[in-house]
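Sample pair:
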Amino acid sequence: MRIKLVVILTMLYLLASSCSEDEPVYDVPLTFQPYVDAFIIEAAKHGQTIDFSDTGLSIQFRDAVDQETGGVCKGNHQIEIEKFFWEDLSEFDKEGLIFHELGHCELNRRHRNDKLPNGEWASRMRGSPIPDGDNAVINYAGSRLEYYREEFFNTEIATPEWANRRLAYEESMIDEVKDNFFDVEEFDNAYIGLSNSNFEIEVTLNTGSSEGFVGVQFMGSSNADRIRVAYNRDKSFAIDSGNEVWGLMFFEEDLELISSGDNMITIRRVGDFYYVFLNREFIYWFDYKVPLRESVQSLNAGSLGVPVYKEVKVVSLL
């Protein structure tokens, strides 16, 4: 009888301990909470009720471990985020990273590495292993944002219209040259003054003695809100903005269009969009954002040497 009582008491204790240990814990710092809230709201739009009451949720910073991932779902609704990586992200990319990890932890989504017709990733769930030579960047902002948000909850979503957007370079669009100068190592604060109309910035340059990215930066008052278009002698090409705008939008290595000599970078604002051309070939488009400062200046991201700008031209477009 005494043995039976001990067994019963032991079972009751283990049962009580088990219930206590399994009680869901919600531990999400305020830093991450707005992005979790956005995930819950987007889920509701697609008929899914998510509140983590049955699973709990933990999102915590960790010291740098893997510079390629930025974050990881460890299972059991436990997410870790690389702190150094997080601090360099735009608001849009912070949301995208949290959505991605919740896609794993809450939606049981795996990585999806197929692409849209224009070569951009079909899902924010893209991930390792990324094929060699592929650009890992996802522009999770502007016109693209709604599509990428919905795709988390609706994998049957139709191909977005923007995945086919492009613009051919046409000389006939040029109206009037506003600013033009030649043969300079670098330049500063060429005034655009065309924010209410269509315009073009066209720069012919070569990398000169610079070992870094060279090109132009425009439409901002600081690194946090400028837009940058640049390339380097290793033939990598980048379209980037500060983390108060869109963040990194485009990056490609070994771009065949880049010459070892002079290259022409053209940025056209047409309506609500910017279009980027390299040597008059279309590269990429992104959304127009109202500038804080209407100027364009040289960009040299290297600490050694300078590029050579053969011509800098600002024109209005029809």
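Helices lie at 2-22, 33-45, 83-86, 91-105, 145-153.
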